[in-house]
Write a structure and sequence with these properties.
By secondary structure, the chain is of the alpha+beta class. Helix content is 24%, strand content 35%. The strands form four sheets. The protein has a six-stranded mixed sheet. A four-stranded mixed sheet has the order 5-4-8-7, with helices on one face. A two-stranded antiparallel sheet has the order 1-2. It is globular. The termini are far apart.
């Protein structure tokens, strides 16, 4: 029985720096991030960004501070020797924010599915986020108008919530609420 072999050659972060365009690098495999997402994907990303941004600002006003920020793609997230570009990320630790992007596991990653990325978002990226210790991973399916929030518990993702469009979702361990869609 033949087993799949790792793709050769495996690439490095240094090699990625020389490439043109937007690329993710996961376990040495390069993933082209072009073409750009369609307009519906961008609308949903923008709406979620605003919803999360406003929820973070409300939480900061109520608590008198806070370091959490939301970032929209393209932003590089460095997880060891890998680099990914999620649709949205929330980072609360200022030490993880650098000139080149996010260094280490964000507090929340949001991926909005598209036909060309759905398989990778459900498998390769899910496993990578889980292994990196990303506490929450929200997968949004625009076609079905649903979302699934995965929470890391004991090193494994479990389904914390299944959401319909317009539902409020408790993020960052329940510290803030944002509307899906």
């Amino acid at each position: 029985m033949n087993l799949p072999q790792p793709r050769q050659p495996l690439y490095t972060l240094d090699e990625r720096e020389a490439w043109e365009g937007r690329w993710e690098l996961i376990h040495g495999v390069a993933y082209n991030m072009t073409p750009a997402p369609n307009l519906e994907h961008q609308r949903i990303s923008g709406q979620l960004y605003v919803n999360i941004f406003n929820a973070l600002e409300d939480a900061k006003r109520k608590s008198g501070g806070g370091e959490c920020e939301v970032f929209a793609a393209p932003v590089d997230v460095f997880l060891g020797e890998d680099v990914v570009q999620p649709d949205l990320v929330v980072v609360c630790d200022p030490a993880k924010k650098s000139a080149r992007g996010i260094e280490g596991a964000p507090d929340l990653v949001v991926e909005i599915l598209s036909p060309s990325t759905a398989g990778k978002d459900h498998s390769i990226k899910r496993w990578r986020y889980e292994a990196a210790g990303v506490p929450e991973y929200l997968i949004v399916d625009p076609g079905e108008r649903v979302g699934v929030l995965l929470r890391l518990e004991n090193g494994r993702y479990g389904e914390a919530a299944r959401l319909q469009w317009g539902d409020a979702v408790a993020l960052l361990g329940g510290q803030l609420s944002a509307v899906l869609g």
